[in-house]
Amino acid sequence: MNPILVEALRGGTVESSHRGALAVIDAAGEVVVAIGDVDRPIFPRSAVKVLQAIPLVESGAADRLALTDEELAIACASHNGEPAHTRVVAGMLAKAGLDVDALECGTHWPYLDSAARSLATAGGEPSALNNNCSGKHAGFLCVACQRANGGDLARFARGYVAPQHPVMREVTAALQAATGYDLGTAPRGTDGCSIPTFAIPLKNLALAFARVATGQGLSPARAEAVTRLRRAVARSPFMVGGTERFDTRVMQQLGERVFCKVGAEGVFCAALPERGLGVAIKIDDGNNARAAEVTMAAVIEAFVPLDANEAAFMRDLSDVTLRNWNGISVGSLRATHALRRACDRRRA
Question: Are 21 and 41 in contact (CB under 8 A)?
């Protein structure tokens, strides 16, 4: 059984707890921290979008279409579906000669309540542009534009979410190269946005993000791609999440020192370039906003050099005050002492 990583307290008493596993790995594959079962394959979901975006740069599509930092960043995103996000995705599609109808990610209302209410109040309906994965899918379509070689792009791109489509084969190859894990034999499912998702051990996911941090272990073209994507996100962190999102807030505060990306079902991954480390977290009960974020904040505190203001900012994310609807403090979320001790022992 995996250990408890995060506790929720009320009145000073533990009310609930969240178990999980954590791997911190360097680019040479050395295990820096391993808590819980880091060998069990888990579905990383949206946490690996930066790896899925490698072909966008490696193929030459990013250069050919003159994609901006915002456009590269949103290709790595699980965004709120705010107007700024939909504008950038629509712009990517236009550069590829496509429109919203080409997206195969599905449609949902914006994640941000205020954006959803504004859209509804104006009498609007959501489109696939509002889907949190629309930027990633626009990136896939830009790759399709590059690979169509002047042929019928709409026809070539159709069905790009299928495992055997040429674009998805490129995406899978990049994911396999980064993780060093044989995806041909890995359990495979279908992600929420309809593309394939593969079950990969945490230690391999952490290795992949150490490679994102350093480029070590990747081909020169892929190393250049991950560096370019990581820097684009650091320059445009709002695109990766949006208003009040953990990923956006942390990267706005810490810049290129942290690349972090949440995935569904309690998965969180990060690259820490200053330390040359990769991080992968899986919360057993699938809790994101409470447990996965608190765990990631504690890891960042342990491994990223922080000044006093940055340390205070991160502590507010790893030791969270819970308030009721009247604004009264009713409890807290906190990283467990066991989690902090395990990280602190290896931080030097």
Answer: no
